[in-house]
Amino acid sequence: MENNLCKLDVIVKSGAKVVLSRMAIGDLATQYFADRNIFCAGRVSMADLKRVSAACGGAVQTSLGDLSKDVLGTCGLFEERQVGNERYNYFTECEHAKSATIILRGGAEQFIEETHRSLWDALMVVKRCDPHNNNNNNCFFATLQMLAFKCVQHSQIVGGAGAIEMELSRYLRDVSKQVKDKSQLIMASYAKALEVIPRQLAQNAGLDATDIVNNLRYLHAHGNRWAGVNIENGGTVDAVQSFIWEPVLNKKTALAAATEAACTILGIDETIKFKI
Q1: How many CA atoms lie within 13 A of 25 on its CB side?
Q2: Helices (runs of H) and strands (runs of E) counted in the chain
Q3: Cα 202–Cα 206–Cα 210 angle in degrees, nearest 5
Q4: Is residue 200 within 8 Å of 191, Cβ to Cβ?
Q5: Largest CB tally within 10 Å, which of 22, 26, 64, 173?
Q6: Domain-by-domain residue ranges, the chain?
Q7: Which InterPro entries does its entry note (predicted)?
Q8: How far is CA 100 from CA 19, 42, 97, 136, 222, in A?
C-alpha cells in the first residue's frame, strides 16, 4: 500500500490535474486524487489516449519513472458534459491541437451510420486536397492529370455543377411537348430525373434546393445553357466561365449506365417469393 501511495504522490507532484489510465483505477487512488482536486478515469482505450495526446500535447506514459511536467499535455478547459443519455469529457481551448472530435446524433441508428459514412467521405476528400501532404498531393494531381488527359483525348467537355443535366432536362421537356402519345410522359419523367444532380448538389451545400432548381429552369429556358449550382456563394454560376468542366465521355457513360439500370428495374413485371 505504501508503494502505491508513493506512485500516486509522484503523479500529484508532477502537476497533473487529469489522469487517464488504460487500467482500472481503484477506490484508494480515486479517493486520493479526489482529495487533491484531480480528475481520474480508468479503462480508457489506447485510441482515446492517443487522441487526447494529439489534442493536448504530451505523451502517453507507460511508467512513472520519467514522469515530469514536461511530458504532460495542457488545455484551457476540462469539463464533463451531459449529451443525451451519455456523459462526455471535453478538452477545449487546446493551443496546439492536432485532432478534433465530432459527435453525431440522430433519431435512429441507421441515420447516424449514413451520416458517419457521408462525413467520412467528406473528410477523405479534404485530406486528398491537403496542400501540406505530399503523398495526397501526388494522388490529387494524378487525378487532375487523368481528367485533363480525358478532356484532351476526346476534345469535348461540358459544364459541370449540374449545368449539363439541367440543359438536357430542358431539351427533353421541349421535345416531349411535340410528342402526342404516351412517350411524352416517359420523356418528361426522364427530364425530371436529370434534375436530381443539381438538386443534390444544392442540398449538399446547405442551399435551398427548390429555389436553386427553379432558378436554373428559368435560366436554361432563356438561353443560359451552362448555368449551374454555385456551392460557394449560393445561387447559380456559369459553369464554363468558372472553369467547372467535365469530360463528355464521363457524362455519356454515367447516363448510359443509369438508363440501363432504370430499364432493367422497369423490365421486372413480377416478383416471386419462395418460402423456405
Answers
A1: 20
A2: 10, 8
A3: 45
A4: no
A5: 173
A6: 2-92, 109-141, 157-266
A7: Chaperone_TCP-1, Cpn60/GroEL/TCP-1, GroEL-like_apical_dom_sf, GROEL-like_equatorial_sf, TCP-1-like_intermed_sf
A8: 20, 21, 8, 20, 47
With a cut of 80, say whether residue 136 has pLDDT above it: no
CATH topology of domain 157-266: GROEL; domain 1 (1.10.560)
Q: Which residues are CB-neighbours of 187 under 8 A, at least 6 positions away?
A: 172, 173, 175, 176, 179
CB 12 within 8 A of CB 38: yes
Residue 255: pLDDT band by 50, 70, 90 thresholds? confident
Tell me if 78 sits within 8 A of 91, measured CB to CB.
yes
The helix/strand/coil state of 227 is strand
Tens of pLDDT, residues 66-92? 787 888 888 888 888 887 778 888 888
At 152, give phi and psi (nearest 5°): -70, -40
Show Cβ contacts of residue 41 under 8 Å, excluding neighbours closer than 6 positions: 19, 20, 21, 25, 89
| Gap between the terminal Cα atoms of the chain | 64
CATH of domain 2-92: 3.50.7.10
